[in-house]
Amino acid sequence: MAELPEALAGQLQALLGPRFSTARGDLDQHAHSESFHRAPAPDAVLFPETAEEIAQILPACAAAGVPVVPWGTGTSLEGHALATQGGVSLDLSRMNRVLEVRAGDMQVDVQPGVTREALNRELRATGLFFPVDPGADASLGGMASTRASGTTAVRYGTMRENVLALEVVLADGRIIQTGTRAAKSSAGYDLTGLFVGSEGTLGVITRLTLRLHGQPEEVAAAVCGFDDLEAAVECVTATIQSGIPMARIEFVDAATARAFNLHSGASLPETPHLMVEFHGSPGAVREDAARFGEIATEFGATGFDWAASPEDRARLWRMRHGAYHAAFALRPGAAGVVTDVCVPMSQLPEAVAAAARDIAEAGMIGPIVGHVGDGNFHSLLLVDPASEAELTAAKAIARRMAERALEVGGTISGEHGIGTGKRGLMAAQHGDAWQVMGAIKAALDPCGILNPGKLVPDRN
Amino acid sequence: MAELPEALAGQLQALLGPRFSTARGDLDQHAHSESFHRAPAPDAVLFPETAEEIAQILPACAAAGVPVVPWGTGTSLEGHALATQGGVSLDLSRMNRVLEVRAGDMQVDVQPGVTREALNRELRATGLFFPVDPGADASLGGMASTRASGTTAVRYGTMRENVLALEVVLADGRIIQTGTRAAKSSAGYDLTGLFVGSEGTLGVITRLTLRLHGQPEEVAAAVCGFDDLEAAVECVTATIQSGIPMARIEFVDAATARAFNLHSGASLPETPHLMVEFHGSPGAVREDAARFGEIATEFGATGFDWAASPEDRARLWRMRHGAYHAAFALRPGAAGVVTDVCVPMSQLPEAVAAAARDIAEAGMIGPIVGHVGDGNFHSLLLVDPASEAELTAAKAIARRMAERALEVGGTISGEHGIGTGKRGLMAAQHGDAWQVMGAIKAALDPCGILNPGKLVPDRN
């Protein structure tokens, strides 16, 4: 373990008292997140409670040249929250208050450590909900920082569409407000949009104003099976092109169905499936579900199973969200390399089929799931953690998937972000625009202390 | 008229031939736009045809310290396209090709000089349309640059939501690509979102990838009257809060109804009105229209007039879009000061009522219209162009309206942008965040040649 400069450590301890920690347990807890990425433990963990504290921490660290790495719940998948260059982990979990629900404006102000499930519990009585749903019970600050999305983005958008305004502490300690409470604004650069997805490299988010949505009057969900992967994915493309306002349309392949059977007590045919949900008035839900049923039947869908009760639906989506963990049942003890490409809708069938071919040809176990209504899909390549060869092979498959996505105008990351894991692909995706990101980073964080080594190019 | 440095003029003439113009007619045509803002004519007008030409023009101008002011159709309302500090007007009207329609992806690539009406004519046979509709037949590059919206934003979003990717020429001549053709991406800073709304201060947009939408199966539109302004606006708030997916919900006040009667051959009762439109399946449109009818009736709506045919609807919206010009019928020969605040939905009734009170107390003619489903409304304060006192009084009312919007968490501009007209209010809205915009500007345009004097603070 490196050590913080003594003067800085003293300054932080004076500011935070026992919320400045170098206890082994705290350091270790902030040394890994939910993926194969590993990093040394941070030199200290800070647990700030206010923006004003953070506004003192950042300039102090900048003066000492010490990295600051924001931490939400540690559920990110690309190593975003790891202190790869040492420094302090800025754990925002104590900033976990829902500050103000403005039901009439369908908005809420939250601190960054509030998780999406905690927020929705708090909203239950209002008739409103926050839709963005990446599966993990992530913090809303973390979700904004990675521009998270998930199963409902096809209907409600990603964090890009659902964050209206932010309070952000800059590296120099200024506390700024971005955005407004109005539904739209043409008053200058979209700084809210710039901080959303910036992965803690431009500032620390200390408050978020989020858009809420009315709980749908009627909800219907179903799962149905297909003979093969192509039929299932082509059904998705046809459904989206038909304009049916799907609330969710999720693909799971045959291997994932098997994982659900092994791990989640399901009894699905071990073939590809779609899981769908409809939101709206009773009439609209009936109409939409019927139109989807017609399209799916054209593509040979069978075994339609409607989740009628809220409990059945909760069970269905819990199973879907558990796909990541369930997949390990296919190879107990394995480590996982997750991919996250997103392609234009017309390119989706070929992109998924090509990924499946690559995985099969490599003899690898790599179940595929996807938020396919957005053209986004993941494979979880299961490798022996002791085998460098397998890890290398998995990374080669992941890289090929990303290259194929770029060839058809897609993106290397639909929702997981860049962190350290995808940084090697940024130049391929963005060309000179990656250097522009670096220039913006340098303008806002001239000392380079905010989550260094992530997302942007290294400083020349 | 200032003159360009001789070497630069020669360089540009060699590059562009007759598309480099210092003809009086060209200069004068680029010296004013659709508002009271005036500026000297530019020193030259350039008519580039390719991004590569622009990539030569910008570094040449940067080396000579000569401002470059992009020009679309000249329909902006805050002086964005005026060469207030001299330099060249970069007229993009020759870059007016629809490059590729990808119907299966519901996307189109266009050059920046394509206007929204031209695009929609080209799309007619595809079953798709581009929804953003600011009224004027503006260029899509200009609409992106001011983050334009208009009557349909309540349903389809603004340019922020409908621009997927851009090609941009930077001040140093690099041509970058931002965004992708995928529906979403978490791969780094949202540069597309940064350039949208940046008013030509960060780069010149040379290609746009736009999201398209399916032409609705069924459309219904109506106009209805209310006893007073409060009832009409409270009806809007109740409608939006009820979750009815309005395709349009527009407010016009009694003075505007009178202007329509005088100028557009309407025969409306001279009271406040709402104009609404519903898009969807036949069943959904029926349901939505019925629910809106119930709410409107609660607020005392009368004289429901349904525009059944496409021609009737076209007439209705042509009338609404003509409000700006029709208003001058209330005071022939007047000049207009346009306001553009946007407030949270719950604050809309009081914001509109307060604006109406201020206008009445000043004894001014100032009709109010609004894209009220977003909380956005405009007044057009009609002043004697020869009277400094009237202009001063109008500006004071506009300023008070903006201050009131800021007091309730709103914005000084919902859709028109900042240009020179609203720049004096930026510090009040953004505080230190305005300086952050300036830092980004300095990072991307270090010589400060791109549309100087607009949007961002002056360089220290």
From TrEMBL, chains A, B:
Q: What terms describe the molecular function in GO for this protein? A: D-lactate dehydrogenase (cytochrome) activity; D-lactate dehydrogenase (NAD+) activity; FAD binding
UniProt KW Cytoplasm keyword = no
Q: Name one Pfam family in it.
A: FAD-oxidase_C
Looking at its record, which EC class is this enzyme?
oxidoreductase
UniProt-listed GO biological process terms = lactate catabolic process
**InterPro entries from the xrefs?**
FAD-bd_oxidored_4_C (IPR004113), FAD-bd_PCMH (IPR016166), FAD-bd_PCMH-like_sf (IPR036318), FAD-bd_PCMH_sub2 (IPR016169), FAD-linked_Oxase-like_C (IPR016164), Oxid_FAD_bind_N (IPR006094), Vanillyl_alc_oxidase_C-sub2 (IPR016171)
Keywords, A to Z?
Answer: FAD, Flavoprotein, Oxidoreductase, Transit peptide
Going by the entry's taxonomy, the superkingdom of the source organism is recorded as Bacteria
Write the Enzyme Commission number(s) for this entry: 1.1.2.4
The FAD-binding PCMH-type domain sits at: 38-215
Per its UniProt record, the required cofactor names are: FAD
Please report which protein family the annotation says this sequence is part of.
Belongs to the FAD-binding oxidoreductase/transferase type 4 family.
What protein is this chain from? D-lactate dehydrogenase (cytochrome)
- Origin organism is Paracoccus tibetensis
